[in-house]
Write a structure and sequence with these properties.
The protein has 70 residues and is mainly α. The protein folds into 2 domains: 32 residues; 35 residues, no CATH class. It has 4 helices and no strands.
Length: 70
Amino acid sequence: MTSTSVYLAEEALSLPPDERASLARLLLDSVKEDGRSDAEIRAELQIRLARLKSGEDAGLSFEAVFGEPA
């Protein structure tokens, strides 16, 4: 492990138990295989973009995404 990894591990271990559990879930989710091909992902993104452009999906505001006014 690099010194950066050791530092991160020490910082993570110093978190309260509930925050460590949240971090553990986040890390485990980040290494799960998606199972979709690049073409399938691209097709899904094209559908989502079309819905945004058509107004069928209004999307999210800056505030909804980042929790602060633009």
